[in-house]
Request: fold
Amino acid sequence: MKKKNHKIVRLAVTASMMASLGVGLYSVSLGNNSVAKAEQLISSNPIADETSPRSITFWKYEVKDVSELGERGDGKEKDVDKEPLAGIKFEVKKVSAVEGGKALENPLKQKEGEDYTVGETVGTVTTSADGSAKIDLGTGRTADGIYLVTELADDRVSKPADPFFVHVPQTDREDHSSLIYDVQVQPKNILNSLLEPDKTVEGQRGYSIKAGQEFDWEAQANIPNGLYQVADKDMVISPVYDKEGNVVADIPVKDGEEIYADHFTMSDTLVKELKIDGVKVQAKTDDGEWTDLTFGTDYSITIDGTKQETAPVTSTTDTEKNVVMDLEQAGMKKVAEAGYTMIRTVYTTHTENDFNGVLKNHFAVDYLSPGLKPIHTENPEDKDPEYFNGGFDIEKTASDKDAPNNKLAGAEFMIAESRENAEKEIFIANDGNSYKKSELPEGVDFLLSTTEEDGVARFDGLALNWYEDANKNGKQDIDEEPTFDRDKIEREYWVVETKAPTGYELLKEPKSVMVNLNTATNDDFELDVVNEPKTDLPFTGGEGTMLIVAIAIGAITVGTAMITIEKKRRQA
Reply:
């Protein structure tokens, strides 16, 4: 009898997620039926009778890897300590052998039209909550024959069970003098972990700092079942697929032999504006901390087809960079034995100092475990993380608009994050932080822009605000604080003129500039600074007195010298 204490499986996932990840789940419905537990119909009479109902009963279970697939069925019901799967459909058709064709043993080996022909569909059933479904084929010998069973595609399933033939009634494979009228089949599916690939930048959906500074992109996914396992019996893995999804030779495995996935990769094409400063791979348990895996042993990194031999992995080319992380067998074994459930590849990058605009990033996960077709899935494009920078320009002119060339060169400007900072001379430096002049760290310089002959100065690669920090925690909360629409991504800066052109007055107060994603590329000047020439002040009394004193001192000196000369002449 079937065990009655089946555990009901409820998975809170969407159909599209299951489809992209290839999760094997199954169920049956015959109206609002549930399959009654009854004694299996087996007759000791070796001659098929005309009174027994013919049927096929399905039992559907989930397994995590090929080591749990068990032995092939014998048509009888078996107790299985696995999770039942509901909602999987099986289509049943009656077939006829072609004279002169091969014996019908396996639809993967025999060919339709050459070895057998297919009749009408007998019916389709769906597994119920306990993982079972039963299809009635009729009563008497007219229902006898060979049936082709096909598990139908399901959005949740990576690889449906392979099609198979069923003889009804079937000869008992232990007692060859008995017939089984209700043939029990127990196809299983390897249930993959939901990969749920997700890409963030500094742990957020968006990010913005002064261009030129390092920041991290994190490509994360759940670790699937079947990357590493140990066979608990002699077995043959069949069918086996290559990377393109073609069926290849079966793999015989001995009891105790280690079984590894064909591959597990995370691939990312970084845009040309990003320079790579390092790549690392980390894994963790659900509640644990991220732990570094070992470069060159647990994983390898390939950039544009070239395997990287040394760490840190870097690339500063001005082209797109295709970066692929391959989890090696040592890494597969490590994450399996450590019980890690999540893995991520972290790309440390920077842009040029004057980068303006938006950078977006996307990645893919590919893996192939024994007994499954290759899996390819990508993080949702609507959740791709983005990086933002903006800039602006200043035009410096003389107040005399009628002058032949009123564009002023040589004016120097610095910027501040607020009016208060500007008034206190706390300016932004090239590391993105703000300092007083007396507190500027060694090796760090203030952002300084000087007007050229055309009177224009520019500030580029400035950080922008991309989300509303509602809880004031200084971080974008992925599930609560969405990224602004493009036209709302902006930040206010305050401009201070720190040196005026020769002959002109300084700007007397800070000026506000609102910087967004368009200010760096439009044709307008975000700030027009008009300088007044220095005025010619009148001479003061102080200056005249000093002149008279200087003349008097000179006269006295000359007179004294003349007297001395005259005395010497008379003595002589």
In short: The mean pLDDT is 84. The domain at 198-384 is CATH 2.60.40.740 (Immunoglobulin-like). The chain is about 10% helix and 35% strand. Residues 177 and 515 are 88 Å apart (CA to CA).
